[in-house]
Amino acid sequence: MASIEITNARKSYGAVDVLHGINLDIRDGEFIVLVGPSGCGKSTLLRMIAGLEEITSGDISIGGTVVNDLQPKDRDIAMVFQSYALYPHMSVAENMSYALNLRKTAKEKVASAIENVAGILGLNALLERRPKALSGGQRQRVAMGRAIVRQPQAFLFDEPLSNLDARLREQMRTEIRKLHRRLGATSVYVTHDQIEAMTMADRIVAMYDGIVQQVGSPLEIYDRPANIFVASFIGSPAMNFLEGTYQTDATDTNATNAAITLEDGTIIPVLSSAQAMSGQKITLGARPEHIDIVEDGSSPSVTATVELIEPMGLSTLVHVTLAGKPVKIFTLARPDLAIGGTVQIAFNMDKTHIFDRESELRLPPASEPVSAQKA
C-alpha cells in the first residue's frame, strides 16, 4: 500500500473552475472519506487520483511517485464504482480474474487469489453465477473482490453503496470497514451520505464548492466544525441555527456574563466567553441533542412553541419554534407535550457553537485549547 499526496490540485473545464487548489496528505493504510453535496468536486478529485480526469495544475503523488501523466492502468490503483461495472456475460470468477488475466498472471496464482478473496467476501458459492443472478449487495461484493485481487497500492470508492436499500447499506458499511482493517489498504471513499462518512472514516474531508472546508476525525468535525457549512452538513438530525447578537457585560472584565440576544429579543445566557466582541452579529448553532426540555425550572430556559412531535421508539424528535425559527430537539424521554402549546427549553452552552455571521467561521470559546481550535 502507499500514501497519496495531493498538492495544490486544480481542475477547470474551460473558464469554469471546479477544484480550487486542493492540498491533502493521505497516509499509508488510511481510510479517507470525501464528503459533501452533489457538485462539490469530490468525485472529480477521486477521478483525478485515478487518472480518469486530467489535472489542470498541481501534483498528485501515489507512493512517492508523481502520477500526473500516467495512464490509469499504470497508477496501480483499483476503483469500485457506483454502478458495479461488471461484465454481464462473465461469471463472478471471470469478472474477478479479468485484470489478472490481462496481466498474463499464471493460472495457479489467479485461482489462488480468487479463492482467497472469495472466502473473505463470502462469494465462494457464487463464483459460477453471472451478475444478473446476483442481488445488489452480492454484485457490490464482486466489484470489491475484483479490486482486491489486484493487490493495488490504493483503493478508490465512488459512492459504491448509493444503489442499495437502507438496510443493505448499513450491512455493507460494516463489511467494507472490516475489510479495510483486515487488508490495511489505503482507501479513498466518496459519498454524499454523512452517516457513511461518520461511521467509516479515519478522517473526513468535508468539501463544498470545490474547496476543502475541513479535515479531521469524525468526532473532531462533529464536535468542532470549522464553519456553518460543516456544522450543517455533518450530523443527523441537522444542527439548529439561530441568528442574534453577542453581548457582554461591560463591567465584567472576564466576559463570563455574556449572552446572545436573538432577533425577537429572546436572551440566551452564555456561561463561558467566546472569541467574539460585544455587539457582534453571530449565528448560534446547537445540535438537537444539546437542547433540553426543562420541566422543573432548575436551569435557565426560554419559551418555545411546539409544532410537531415525532416518536421514534428509542427517542423522540420534538419540533418547536423559537424566535420565529424552527428548532429540533432530540430526547430519549417521551415528553407529554401538546401541539401548539409552549415548552421551556435550555441550551447546553458547553456544547453549542457560535459562528461569525459574516464569515460563517466558528468562534471557539476562550477555554478551548489552541490545538482543538485548529482541528
UniProtKB/TrEMBL annotation:
Protein's UniProt keywords contain S-adenosyl-L-methionine: no
Coiled-coil ranges (or none): none
Ranges of residues in domain ABC transporter: 4-234
GO function term, MF aspect, one: ATP hydrolysis activity
Entry's Gene Ontology cellular component terms: ATP-binding cassette (ABC) transporter complex, substrate-binding subunit-containing
Swiss-Prot/TrEMBL GO biological process terms: carbohydrate transport
Domain of life: Bacteria
Keyword Manganese included in the entry's annotation: no
Signal peptide: none
Identification of the protein by name: Glycerol-3-phosphate ABC transporter ATP-binding protein
Species per Swiss-Prot/TrEMBL record: Thalassospira marina
Lineage: Bacteria, Pseudomonadati, Pseudomonadota, Alphaproteobacteria, Rhodospirillales
